[in-house]
Amino acid sequence: MKEKNSHTHHISQQFNTELDDIKTRMLEMGGLVEKQVADATNAFMSLDTGLAEEVKKGDKLVNALEVSIDEDCTIILARRQPAASDLRLVLSISKILSDLERMGDEASKVAESAIKLTELGGLPRSVLEIRHIGDHVAGMVRGSLDAFARFDIDLALEVAEEDKAVDLEYGTAMRSLVTYMIEDPRTISSVLQVMWALRSLERVGDHARNIAEHVIYLVKGANVRHVNIEEMAATVQDQS
Amino acid sequence: MKEKNSHTHHISQQFNTELDDIKTRMLEMGGLVEKQVADATNAFMSLDTGLAEEVKKGDKLVNALEVSIDEDCTIILARRQPAASDLRLVLSISKILSDLERMGDEASKVAESAIKLTELGGLPRSVLEIRHIGDHVAGMVRGSLDAFARFDIDLALEVAEEDKAVDLEYGTAMRSLVTYMIEDPRTISSVLQVMWALRSLERVGDHARNIAEHVIYLVKGANVRHVNIEEMAATVQDQS
Which residues of B fall within a CB distance of 8 Å from A188? Predict the structure, then answer.
């Protein structure tokens, strides 16, 4: 535990400022990505192609932020040669940036599917699955970023657990859509767009889980990638 | 250019060995991932569930390698505090590991689709698109790793260009599958498995392009993420 907050006690005030700066910028980028996911979901639900186009445009900013903040991470590594928890912090931020950027890509794909579905004339049936899973994963994005901001590993664990719930919801939604397609083959092209959008949202959940894993790594120094929830919980509860 | 091979001229022979070691291990992991992609493609084409199960099992090794090699990267950053091109090398390897790991996930998804398609009784129509795009992206994986091994930015650019070709092939294949589905709705569930597998293979191509971008960054020090092929070619050809 004593190492955990060491990056707040540097001899160099300037170094502290630099670390705080990349943290803040990453969280701002995260806020933007969360908004992209929510906007893409709304665009899909209301077949709002204007909003969908905005999401696609917004992805350019997400990409630019990733490159810019990651460059700052590299500069800090080169100039400050951080060790221990500072090194973990910078490396975690660099990896989280990559997950955020990919979430942005997925939001953009949802927006693209919204546009295509609109062109196809929409769907006679409502697509509540998109609303439901979209809201769910947007909440996970927010949770994973809050967990990072507060070094809150219990919240990080909750986010990872949510991902299992999303995967189940996704499976149920897909089966229902397949049934719908089979019953009314004229809807095949439209339902496919719903499926692509759902798949993208499900991946946003995967990336939120990745961020949660980075938070646990950051705080506990233990790698929890590719372990199951039970092992992850044991790591989080480990007091050593 | 003078900086490019500086990591081969260290005062510390031990440091050289460490850098060579993570490079070698990453390339070995890359070879395994390439094999996973090829095996998943073959399993899908021949509905070989035994081979598909092997691919799914093999993904655990891919995941373990990612964690292990990435830990070595962190240790090198902490102990050696590399600068300039050495720092870029270690950071690039860390990022390439992440792309390789995700390619492994996609290969595993292709294997899963192969199993599901087999359970559904296969498809009356051959799925040559899987063979074609599978071979194409496996070649891209190999090309991106060769480009890394030889610091060959021209080859890296070729890989990035191939990705555009794969995206076009993917679009054509998907349209043809939608048509097939509409003409024979009884095949919907089976064709969906082909679509998921194709989508996964297309993503393998995206990750190979990412690796190519990391190679260009490594050699030229210029970030070519999120730029179009023309800008990327200009960076590669820039003699400065």
Answer: 178, 181-182, 185, 188
